[in-house]
What does this fold into?
Amino acid sequence: MVDWAQMRDCWFEVDRVPELLERVERGDVADAWKELGWRLVLEHDLVSPASFAALPRLVCLAPRSAEARALAGEILERAAGHHGCDDLLADCAGAIAQFREVLNRHLRSRPTDYLVSFRALLSAEAEYHWAADLGEFKDDFYPLACPHCGAEVTIAIGDYGRYSAIRDWDMGDVERRDLRPAAADRLTGTGRWMHETAVRDGQEVLADGISYLFGDAECPGCASVFNVAEEYTSANRPVMR
It folds into this structure.
């Protein structure tokens, strides 16, 4: 049983979150999800004890609620942060495992909120940097430093092209080099799992974008070749305590 008197939310209050959870559970959702969202996930990636205390109840709502899936995913996306709630997070292990099952079933149905739920699944799998940054590959940019010369390289994957470039604020992306996508049978680990899931669910654009994201890029500065995902992960994966 949760002692809500000890579970402050992001606004340092203890009474509103349990009341709002009861409202959404009985279907009284007018403005309740909006308030619940900013009480459980504040700007600057802040979460609170109430965020993790609420997670199991959000997971129970997730099979039938897009709002619950999105909010649970946002909370988990911040699980690697300095929230001071490690014990509460550990207590959510069962709920997180259940959430993964719910999301996998939901994704197989090819829902309209596919990307949101896919990112939530990434957060449930502790792939926090991809959960935060993965886009729909329409207008996506991934900035990183060349591991060989240190040049600031922009990786573009979208309708406008798939390339590495040096970004000039007056001229735009210059010195473009085509990205080299990874063949499906050469993918391993997280990239393979992400690609196979997208292919399984008929998400062709997402699967194609992932093949480029986990492929290779040429640095326009020194012409060295590096793996995009490896460098982006190295620069952006949260440091686990």
The beta strands are 139-145, 152-158, 161-168, 172-178, 216-218, 225-227.
